[in-house]
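This protein record is not my work; I was only asked to verify it. Where you disagree with what is written, explain briefly why. This is what I was given:
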Amino acid sequence: RSSYSCCYFVLPCCFFDFHGKYSRRQSKKTQYREYLDFVAQVGFVCGFHVEEDCLRIPSTKRVSFIGKSRTYPPAEHALIDSQITQFINSRRTCAVATCDRRVGFKHKDHCDSLCEEAGSESPEDETETTGTIWMPGFQPREKVEQIRNCASLPRDFVDEVVLNVANLLLNAAPQKSCSDMQGENTNAWNQGESLSLREVAEHLNKETLKKLKSEYGGLQTLLKNNHQVFEVLNGRVHIRDWRKEKPPSKTKPEVKRRLSAEAFKTRLCWFFIHHPDGCSLPSKACPYAHGTEELR
């Protein structure tokens, strides 16, 4: 709807409609094919000759659509724009009715109220939206999206949270009695205990939680970003034991093996610096540097 001369390219991926998740209507088609047909329909309704192409990319979703020319002359632009408005409103009505049916509302009653609501719109209201670029109330996202995956947090702040959580897990380990220690290797590496994300959050101060709350995924995202130290499984946080990690496959292509070798020892080993027992792996086997002299 930007302009008559607009062209478009779209690579459909996630199944979304204009106002929420896309609801399936045809069980004889796969979900992906049905959604592709819907995206193509949008192009046709908007007055485009829609062309379908398959990209040569390593993805299961690689069908794309291209709209390079219109199906109508410029003089009919206002008429087509009115059809687009009606199409968007019809999709919104379907989305609301489907949502209410799922949560247990009586579908017929709610559809009646929706029809009344749609019927109450005067022709003047419709002509106001016709010819405008966007629908009323549409709020586009900012040109520059704020990064909120914890990657832009200050390094000192992240390091402090990582150290606090690691110490919490290490100190949560149950104390072993002398009888338990008999016959056991006293040099056993302490992996600590696992705690739920809620339990970890309860031990962090309010300022830290407030800063993490503004990030997508919050605490869980920060811990997952620090893959070297933590493992988050089913909502529980563990200290990663690199002895249990699977060795890299020897059947990797030469290019991937070379890239893996180049990434070896490019960061300091957190366990070598901070863990009371040091790193669980010897220096040669650890993918991280045991001291600055090993950094590459």
Remarks:
- Residues 77-102 form the longest helix (26 residues).
- The CA atoms of residues 33 and 139 lie 29 Å apart.
